[in-house]
């Protein structure tokens, strides 16, 4: 039962191969095996959204995915969403609109917002409110987060 | 001292210094840290609220795969010394790191397993066999004082009363007043149990290095210095042998202000094992075992004249402190009259133990005074047939009549209670809303408005809290590094303090780096909390920056053969006033100060560094606000929805308006969460019922209204910047504002809202009961 | 909060899946999207020595439309189903999916996993029940079909036999002049419904020729409201929908939890049914 399994992933564009217990969650493998500590764990039962990453381009809770399930997948974390210079439009909007305070939920917010805006180029304010409802934040009262989502959507559209 | 400088950065919403690392996944929280040979800890916790421990069998766990050690109380007994926190004093001892003979709440730690991974530690926990002998638990705090089941019977205590203050009239003519007024209003206000819930749970990486005999802690805390002092005492070490750091902390809200027994256990484990031990609390533990809050009730009485003048207010107050309280901060009854002209006060207080998780500080821990008063004012308004805004108007203090000393002995000045109420009501269009509400009722729609006005004591003086320190150094490059006594956990301290410092020295915001939360390099500070940073740490940053600027001017004066008072600094350049071509860059001055210090006059020491401790001119620094909330309740589903939320606040001079508003937003949503969504429940045997995020409901974007903020600015004279604290206010005001809005929406049905939470089920029950009563 | 250890099996054929389930019996659990199973395991409310991961069985991820029905493979992710052209012909399914959790959950969660999990507050079991879907079960003896009406036995309990896997669900396609409505109330956006109703009608002028009403959150399984359906068909499209709601709610015996009492759930049920039917009728008329 202590068998380890080899899992091959592409993470932020880099091929990775790790040996893990089948029970290892994708979040733990990203953090502990690959040193990508930007993906945070805040509930480990799939409610808070802090651990959100992209799996083959789609947002998912990495605490609700065993690493073995992601075999062969391409995973993008908050580190991978950051351009080499500066910040992404979503990250910039979050900074401009004070969408973060303690920063612990922030990586999940950035990933979710990025994924949603990729798929929904013209969201209404209500759409954004619904889209961001799967990520808990305890500091901002969500005002800055929703303002950032609006700004990012508008800027992405203007490009 | 040189003359004051013009603000360039204070008052503006500069980009936060914290944001780049936090937005890109490069924050450094305790869970992100590791150390060579690090091992992982998990606690086995009590499943029962009260029981004797007949036996704890750890044999199978000890031999489970990957297990390094399994600790019980007997392993830690006599391995530690004093266990008290500077702010709370020697009398309040942190409970033993593990249960001794019995357990007193669900979550009480019984054993600590250390293993190669957290998963293996949890596997081993599952193998520990505990033989409990259950006992009757005390859960209901309202009846706990009279309960013959005593939570701490094993300590020989006679009852569940921790603290009791008998009824104390603060005015001689209280009874006569109640006997002579037109209206006596009596109501019992109940505030439910809800929690801080920082998104980052508690956690510590503790490393004891044998030979070196030093303890290194990376910990999710609001105070690295008090944590260091605690563990120096706990292990009998000199403070210099303990280093505590906390680069990034994922929220605290009071929960991380103090030292917990779990952290003690982890420190003892690293000491005994001689290798680093990491404990990252999981969410189940955080919800059940990391300190609970609110959960207070008060019987409020008000004496009101026929004209609606409140002549007296009293409260008989009971607070639940749980089994072991990390911080027994409860209502401050001397604040009960709040920002009102109420001349008479009386109160009693009882703090009782129950077999539940203990009370911890939470954003405005004394705030039940506001909840009790503001909800009671709405009850009174309904009872005497007066509009609740009008009743408040009649009794609120305004800036013009200050200073005012309340019957609780509070000296109010530089606050604007009536002014904020009027601003908030104006933003809503209160009179129009009342018309809209009446028309909506005709259509069967239930709309309501709730008001809450409060005054907030920020930057209090108690125990360790009166001062903060700052060391500011201009390096030989001309760049500025500020070493502050603060421990930020989301308050934007790196940003706001840099704004103050840049202005006072005369350099760019980007030229300032702030270092904090490292006991080896920063001045002592008691911790970030109590809305104290802007005033006290801001004062220290201000005064240290001024002191460094004076050194720059002294050296530049020598270099330029000018008088220091003829010089000014702007954007990193020192120039003679009126002669801009006679100038030096700060870098040139710094080179002189460090590299050619021997050429300076004998009374100029060289270097460009100053350390200042700051203490405000008086305590506390008052700030204030008025909250107005509009809700609509679906008459078919009883689901409440907030339509508008308005805050008018006065925190004096704002360092960074975006940060101020962010603090208000966050506090308001915590407060409305506590009324409408969050409710930590136990069953009658003390079993927690809301132990996951599926049951303990934090608000999301889906429930959160747009929050509108108006600002008033009565400058404080307690500190050089004119600042007031404001971090807690949002959470203080929102509870009563939301509860009162629900009450107002239901008032026409004969419902009298006096308690929270107010989810659809509670609203349904209130409506049903009222209909039954009417029928 | 880490799951206990298990062995992970990743078969590529349905036959292998059935073989593994037969081999490990009660020690094995099927892993589809994992969005309900993994939190249960993380909380150690359940431990399974063997997980049979069905994500690599290609046949389970197919959506096939045929005359009168759409067959959705067990492993089809909810988000993919929501966007799929064939699923648009089963509007109740397409309308119900956005009510499940949040988009991050729907990207991983599967149609079959949700129905096999049989949570009485979740939407997809109710869709299956409302539409008289056929559940395809594959076991050691081959394939059999179970009517949705016979499938949901109790909370998290279904008519699947030991060793059987839900391999697909066949949803009937309703004809023209049909409309559907999903109405639910929850404490927060994305939470499990306190009470929900899923409704469908087919109109012939003002006559209701076909109706389905299923409620969630009001019992140990989704509940089909046959009496209310019959009353609606008997009364036509101008029937008092409040009365239909009351008929639907009358036999309910909801349970309570921390979020709502049984009395509350029962009390609000008629209005939820009325709202779902109002939406369905509106769509059928348009």
Describe the structure.
The complex is a heterotrimer of chains A (159), B (775) and C (286). By secondary structure, chain A is an alpha+beta fold. Chain A has helices at residues 26-33, 89-96, 106-119, 125-131, 143-158, and strands at 5-11, 14-20, 52-55, 58-61, 74-76. Chain A has a five-stranded mixed beta sheet, sandwiched between helices. In chain A, strand 3 and strand 4 form a beta hairpin. Chain A starts with a strand and ends with a helix. By secondary structure, chain B is α+β, with helices and mostly antiparallel strands. Among the domains of chain B are: 46-135 and 197-289, Aldehyde Oxidoreductase, domain 4; 462-614, Aldehyde oxidase/xanthine dehydrogenase, molybdopterin binding domain (Aldehyde Oxidoreductase, domain 4, 2-Layer Sandwich), CATH 3.30.365. Chain B is built from 18 helices and 28 strands. In chain B, helix 11 crosses helix 12 (430-442) and helix 13 (493-505) runs parallel beside helix 14 (533-560). With 286 residues, chain C is an alpha+beta fold. In chain C, 33% of the residues lie in helices and 26% in strands. Chain C contains eleven helices and 14 strands. A five-stranded antiparallel beta sheet of chain C has the order 4-5-10-6-7. A four-stranded antiparallel beta sheet of chain C has the order 11-12-13-14, sandwiched between helices. In chain C, a hairpin with a 2-residue loop joins strand 6 and strand 7. The radius of gyration of chain C is 19 Å and the shape is globular. The mean pLDDT of chain C is 97. At the A-B interface, helix 2, helix 3, helix 4 and helix 5 of A face helix 1 and helix 16 of B.
